[in-house]
Amino acid sequence: MAISTAVGNFVPGFPRNRDPRNRHLIPEVSVRAERILKGMVKEENAAFEVHPIYCCYYHKLKNGRPCTCRYDRLEVDVERTAEDKAIVLSDFLLNVPQLVPDGDSCPICFDTGFVGGYERTGTFSIVLDPTLVHNTTAGVRLEKSKPYVFRPSNVSGDITWTITIPTYFTNVTDVAIRWDEEPEEWSVKLDNVTLTEDLLEDSKGEEVTIKFSMTDGSNKAAGMYCIFLVFNVSDSYLISSNFPNIETTLTGDMNIVNDITSPQSVYFDDAVGDCLTTDLFLDTRWNKLWRVVSLETNAPYENIIDRKTQSRIVRDFEKHLMVPNKLLVGYYNKISDYYTFVV
After folding, report:
1. Any idea where the domains of the chain sit in the sequence?
2. Mean pLDDT to the nearest integer, 65-92
């Protein structure tokens, strides 16, 4: 644009894209905003520590050893949706056990397709299953069903794995045997000595042999799927959470008192890492297992202040979500049918 006067030629106008007069303040504003947001993160983390409910958080695996339940079959998941970001129907059908597929649930990968299924924050897991190099004796038969399962006979048989125990860990969280049905006799040994937590701690960084022995001549359903060994490798293996308003229901006709039947708002600080729908967490206050249904991350300018989830309680009949954690024994009656916790 230009201006014409009666006494002179055209005078150039102001440039259209001239920088604002306060442009020099923009870097300072950004720095101050960054400081404010970091202060908010610190305050939020401090608030979590006032009355925290500590949780064991389980991230759903996206890669790993393929599970034997996936061998030679189309990958069809009842609860898997595009990118695991959609709310699925079974998140609302909480009281109808027959709607949860029994035959399709895998005790080794928990329907994720990868051995172990979930990775607990702050831990390192070793899963002794048929996909890990092993040796068997005549008394054990590997049944190549989906998934594979070790079957005993009336003659004592062994399965052995050679593994390396982690060099650094604070303690052993769980050593859990996952059964089809528990055989009459069985044992677990490390280098021919009965496996204990002390023995595992004395074997840090060493290559050892784990031998599982069993015998059962009468029960055809007796069998062992795998053994989970879970080690704490971080001081932050428990994650702080906040349950601001637990909503319960009272149904007099059904004699149900304070039953948590709907998804609840649960907050986590940034220590939890990336959250996804279908992740699991176990609260150590009530020893209940929860499943993340939806997620909202509060992260202005990429500063994660908190993560808000809508989460629901996993029901006793949902055995395809029962991860190996002995704390579950306090709430779920059937967990002892699935696992024996050696440690």
Report:
1. 22-122+235-337, 123-233
2. 54
